[in-house]
Amino acid sequence: MEIIDTHAHYDDSRFDDNRDEVIADVLNIGYIRNIINAGCSIEGSKAGQALSRKYPQFYFTAGIHPHDSVEIKDRDRTLFELEGLLRDPKCVALGEIGLDYYYDYDRDVQKNWLEWQMQMAQRMGKPVAIHDREAHGDCMDMVRKYPDVIGEFHSFSGSAEMAKELVKRGWYISFSGVITFKNASKILEAVKAVPLDRIMIETDAPYLAPVPMRGKTNVSSYMKYTAEAAANVLGISTEEFCAATTENAKRLFGIK
Ligand SMILES: [Zn+2]
């Protein structure tokens, strides 16, 4: 069995004390084929780039997260640095970018940054990794506005209908440990709505650890619980499910 973690944050400060040990443990498990470290800022994206240079299994994405977008002072400099990071052969997507209406970050600033980065993805032919928290309508408007851009919706939290529209538009849907939570019935409907050639899984480590590890610092090896939960609701084996998600991640992100 092989699993690709399509979205993790091993640059997070929660791993500062023991990052190398945690990564060594995860990779020693044997079934974690690759990890894509998601960037949220220029600094974080550079940290992901450093991990991709240290560990052959690691790839990274570079982008400005909606939470980080409101802090940026020099727009042109930031976009210039981002473009440089995207040229790294181990940079597999522009992300994570998106909209977060759960917290009180300025929505106009978030929308501007999402749009500038969608334009860059289009120009550079890169897939994107979308963060969508309680902003489904505006995220879908942006997807419809840039039909040439595809990518993954990370830790998907939308409806089955939304998942179906994304799939029709060429997008991939990535599910996190949230699908193992008690109140996951709506999200499991979305899992069932995504065809097997468009579904992916992720940790969002250190966040969103699946049951029975819920509340702990999440790591990629816990994805077996997420994979089991998805395979279970789809009525297929965990091996079959993981084979599909691995192929999908390789295809979207151009991983060999
Ligand atoms: Zn994330």
- Looking at how many chains there are and whether they match, the oligomeric state comes to single chain
Shape: globular
CATH architecture tag:
Alpha-Beta Barrel
Using only C-alpha atoms, the radius of gyration works out to 17 Å
Quick rundown:
With 256 residues, this protein is an alpha/beta fold. It has helices spanning 19-28, 42-54, 66-69, 75-86, 107-124, 136-145, 160-168, 185-193, 223-234, 238-253, and strands spanning 3-8, 32-38, 58-62, 91-100, 128-133, 151-153, 172-175, 199-201.
Question: How is this structure best described in words?
Answer:
With 256 residues, this protein is α/β, with parallel strands linked by helices. The protein has a single domain, classed as Metal-dependent hydrolases (TIM Barrel), CATH 3.20.20.140. 44% of the residues lie in helices and 17% in strands. The protein is built from ten helices and eight strands. The protein has an eight-stranded parallel beta sheet. Helix 2 links the parallel strand 2 and strand 3. The longest helix is centred in the middle third of the chain and has 18 residues. The radius of gyration is 17 Å and the shape is globular. The model has no long low-confidence stretch (mean pLDDT 98). The chain binds zinc ion (ZN).
